[in-house]
Structures are given as structure tokens and as C-alpha cells.
Amino acid sequence: MPLKRLIILFCLAVSALPAQAEGFITRLLNKPVPGGVAVVTLPEQSEAPRAQYQNQPLLVIREDGQRWIAIAGIPLAVKPGTEHIETEGGQKIAFKVSDRKYPEQHIKLKNQQHVTPDPEHLKRINRELDEQINAYKTFSARQPSNLLFDRPVDGRLSSAFGLRRFFNGEERNPHSGLDFAASTGTSIKAPAAGQVILTGDYFFNGKTVFVDHGQGLISMFCHLSAIDVQVGDEVGRGAHVGKVGATGRATGPHLHWNVSLNNTRVDPSIFIGAFMP
Ligand SMILES: [Zn+2]
């Protein structure tokens, strides 16, 4: 058999193989628990398919040049069981959500306004909340530069994502991000490339920076002592964005880092390969 024909036959055989073993991104990110991430394979087509989950557009990438995958953030409030994403054509694709237990954390705050704010503070808090929720809804066309994120600071992981939080004995929202122990002034670096879409000095979050990594994947850094970027700035992977501090509702200097996908706050430890079931 001529070599050329052998090569053609070989190529046909390879392309006819069933779906390949899951790739690096799927192994890294597929942690389908409340507050986790589901990686869902989409139907094969030439152009990137579009998909949504709970009416929010999803991050879609080509994995290993072999298949389209949608990467969906799962809200903490979702119950274990079967969930669905929906393709542009209206096809529903199921994925399973497993259980995950989140422990409690009890925190003492000196400032009672940070536990039960006055009505005047509430007005400010709600305005700031709207501003930040709008930032999380950003969906830009750019492809994230890397899905295995770099750690934004050197420092031990202190408070985990999802902790059920009690401030001075009163239950408040669960911990929406991951805390790193680091001293005031430590440089915070972008875990992936992106654009600065919001900065502010907020009642709870203190000095805050939002970076859009593309397709609804957004980082938020808060309690900073200094913000060293401006809205509209393009930041490269590893670029300095600000400095660690203790502004807003913080008991001491640390970095609080949120990662959001499809307007859903998920466990950032997944993106740095530090997820523990
Ligand atoms: Zn935190």
C-alpha cells in the first residue's frame, strides 16, 4: 500500500475514534458542586456554539482542538441533583451536581455597622451592590488568556470559599471568595490577562478592583490599601493591580479574591488547582 494512502487511512481511523479522554481544562475545572464549576461538552460544529445556564451566557472554549466545552459556574444555593445548560438551538444538556458541605465561621467585629447597618448606610450599600452586580454581568467576547490562574498574592490560604458566616453571632451571606493571608502593601497581581472594568471604595469590600478576563470570567479583589489601576486599563497576566490592605469589613490585612463565571461566584481555589472536595 502506498505510504500516502496509509497516512490517509490512519487519519480516518483517528478521526473516527470516540470522544477522547477529558483534557487538562476539564480535569482542572470540572468540580460540579454547589459553588463549583461544571464542564459540559457541547455538540460538534465549526463555529463556537453559544450556551447558557440559568439565563446567563456561558464561557465556551475549544479543548485540545477536539471539542467545544461550556464552563458553568454553579450557584451555592443550587441543590445536589440534575441541572441543565441550554444551547443556542434550545437543546438541553444535563449535568450532575454533587453535595458539598460548607463549614461555619464565627467572626467578631468591633464595628456593629458592619453587622447591622443603619438605614443611611443601607442606601449606600444597596447602591454599591448594584454597581458591583452590574460588573459581574459583563460578558465580553475575549478568550481568557489562561484558565489555570496564577495566585494573585504569595500567602497562605486563610478563609475558604463558601463558609457560612456569623458576624457577632448573626448569620450573613456565605463567604463569596477566597482569602489569602498577606501583609499590608503586598502586591496583588492579575491571575490572568484582562481589562479593569470597575474600581471603588465600598462599605463592605473597601477598596476594590474588578478585572474582566473574558466571556463572563471575572476576578474581584477587595479590602485593598491601594488601587493602582484605572477603569479601562488592559492588564497582562501577572500585572500589578493594587496592594493588600484591610479596608471595608475586614478584621486585619488580607486579600479577598472572588472569581465569577456566568454572574455566579464560584470557589477560586478551583482555578489555582487547590480545590479540596
Ligand atoms: Zn474574604
Automatic annotation (TrEMBL):
It comes from the Bacteria. Pfam families: Peptidase_M23, Peptidase_M23_N. Gene3D superfamilies: Glucose Permease (Domain IIA), Peptidoglycan hydrolase domains. The keyword Signal applies. InterPro entries: Cell_wall_metabolism_enzyme, Dup_hybrid_motif, M23ase_b-sheet_dom, Peptidase_M23_N. Residues 174-268 form the M23ase beta-sheet core domain. Residues 30-99 form the Peptidase family M23 N-terminal domain. SUPFAM superfamilies: Duplicated hybrid motif (SSF51261). The keyword Signal applies. Residues 1-21 form the signal peptide. Keywords: Signal. PANTHER family: M23 FAMILY METALLOPEPTIDASE (PTHR21666:SF285), PEPTIDASE-RELATED (PTHR21666). This is Peptidase M23. It comes from Halopseudomonas salina.
